[in-house]
Amino acid sequence: MILIITNKLDPHADWVIRLLKRKGIDFARFNTEDFPQKVVVSWEASEVGFEGEVNLPSGKNVILSQVSACWYRRPLPPVVNKQIFTEHSKKFVLEESKEFLSFLWNNMNCFWINHPLDIKRAESKPLQLKFASKCGLSIPRTLITNSPKKAKEFCESCNGLVISKVLGRGEVEYQNDYYFIYTHRLKPEDLKNLSDIRFAPVIFQEHIEKSVEIRVTIFGEKVFACEIHSQDSEKTKDDWRHYDFENVKHEVHQLPIEIEKKCLKLVKLLGLKFGAIDMILTPGGQYVFLELNPNGQWLWVEHLVGLPISNALIDLLLNSLKSLRK
After folding, report:
1. Contact call for residues 37 and 79 (beta carbons, < 8 A)
2. Mean pLDDT for the stretch of residues 95-117
3. How far apart are CA 90 and CA 146, in angstroms?
4. How many other C-beta atoms are found inside a 10 Å radius of the C-beta of residue 7?
5. What is the structure's pLDDT at 174?
6. pLDDT tens per residue, range 186-233
7. What is the pTM of this model?
């Protein structure tokens, strides 16, 4: 059986599940925000051995020892029952629920795309840069610091052509709403406020001139590359994740074999089966690695340019099942 660990509002999971149903492949979907209110999870230890079970709202019961492959897609934290009122009780229930799920994932002996521990490690942007360089990929000059003095010196050495980005995911909660911090090209007024970084470290990178940006999606040994013509829109020039589909063209891109091999090597070096890599192709034809998302989005690429990415995911899951049967 294939277990898909995600949330209720995940179009990637919806799309792949439709394909799995067409192929008649046995799977179960665990939306983690349903736990512990709507999902019952048990784990038992005895002299005979250890066994876990997940009872889903659909009525399907998943015996964890019978799960051959897990797709760890986009799980959300457990949701505490509204009958629990006090803040300390809510915190206790949430932490206990998260701890239990974490134990289950870390003790399931199956094929993962990707294991949560591998995702956590691979999310480190400094580590990505270090490993990308080790694989032979070009990387931008980078400084990570909370020193205003060092930041000023770095910006001056780059003639002020610098971008800033966050170390983590860049999600900020403010007044019960969530905001996302995008890659930002520093302006003259930003350079006057570098003293603010003493409160938290910031990633500074030299600004790399772009011809197009490349989104590379890897599942196993299969590599898919898409050109994003981000420079065609003011909205997406610094960060294509601002999205402007009406003005920004997407096209299939043919990576040079040596770049493809280096991308594959990077994903494997990080212990992953899947990775979404962002690169720049400069006007001079140089490929420059920016970062890797070990749990990134790819469905929009498949829909826009027709790359069979979801089939590569399913093939990887099915191949893992076949290898386990041998």
Report:
1. yes
2. 96
3. 34
4. 17
5. 65
6. 888 888 889 889 999 999 999 999 999 999 999 999 999 999 999 988
7. 0.92
Beta bridge partners of 318: none
Name residues whose C-beta falls within 8 Å of residue 150's C-beta, 6 or more positions apart in sequence: 143
User: What pLDDT does 232 receive?
Assistant: 84
Beta strands 142-145 and 162-165, pairing class? unpaired
Which residue carries 């997940």 as its tokens?
A: 54
Q: Name the burial class of residue 189, with classes exposed (0-12), middle (13-18) and buried (19+) by CB atoms within 10 angstroms of its CB.
A: exposed
DSSP string covering 38-67: T-EEEEEE-SS-EEEEEE-TTS-EEEGGG-
pLDDT-based confidence at residue 185 (cuts at 50, 70, 90)? confident
Sign of the Cα pseudo-torsion (178, 183, 188, 193, in order):
positive
Determine phi and psi for 215, rounding to 5 degrees: -105, 115
Residues 313, 214, 172: CA angle, nearest 5 degrees: 80
Q: Which residues on neighbouring strands pair with residue 289, listed in sequence order?
A: 279
Count of alpha carbons within 13 angstroms of residue 131, beta-carbon side: 22
Highest mean pLDDT among 82-86, 87-91, 168-172, 241-245: 87-91
